[in-house]
Amino acid sequence: MFTLDQARDLLPEVLARADELVSVRADLIELQGALARGVSVPHLGGLPEAKGLQARLSELLGWFPGNGLEVKGISPLLLDFPASMDGEPVLLCWLEGERALTWYHKPAHGFAGRRRIPEVS
């Protein structure tokens, strides 16, 4: 369980890993498509590089649950930080492209139930 401060403190590392994941994911998709069509992509390599990208993607994805986050999707990357708000369990929700942690939802409501995290004064 994260506090909001703990989750926000971890966010810079989450963003760095997420940015790398997005890049690796795109390279892997491009390379796999080229390999399936039998064409080369000189800047990405061949089958050995595809295997390396798969391994790196797996490693990056494993970092999130290893640090207490739930991976809900990989394209787009969707992460939840288990937390508590007003004594109720919630998931602090982060979606690829967001640069801050500003959303949450109740576990039973999922992404469609996302709400802005209330500002504390």
- E-strand count: 5
Assembly classification: single chain
Shape: elongated
Helix content: 40-55%
Keywords:
about 120 residues; alpha+beta; 5-stranded antiparallel β-sheet; 2 helices; 5 strands; elongated
Describe the fold and architecture:
With 121 residues, the chain is α+β, with helices and mostly antiparallel strands. It has one domain (4-116). Helix content is 45%, strand content 22%. The protein has two helices and five strands. The chain has helices at 4-37, 47-66, and strands at residues 70-74, 77-85, 88-95, 103-105, 115-116. Strands 1-2-3-4-5 form a five-stranded antiparallel β-sheet. Strand 3 (88-95) and strand 4 (103-105) form a beta hairpin. Helix 1 (4-37) packs antiparallel against helix 2. The longest helix is centred in the N-terminal third of the chain and has 34 residues, at 4-37.
Topology (elements, then pairings):
Elements: H1 4-37, H2 47-66, E1 70-74, E2 77-85, E3 88-95, E4 103-105, E5 115-116
Antiparallel strand pairs: 1-2, 2-3, 3-4, 4-5
Summarize the structure.
The protein is of the alpha+beta class and 121 residues long.
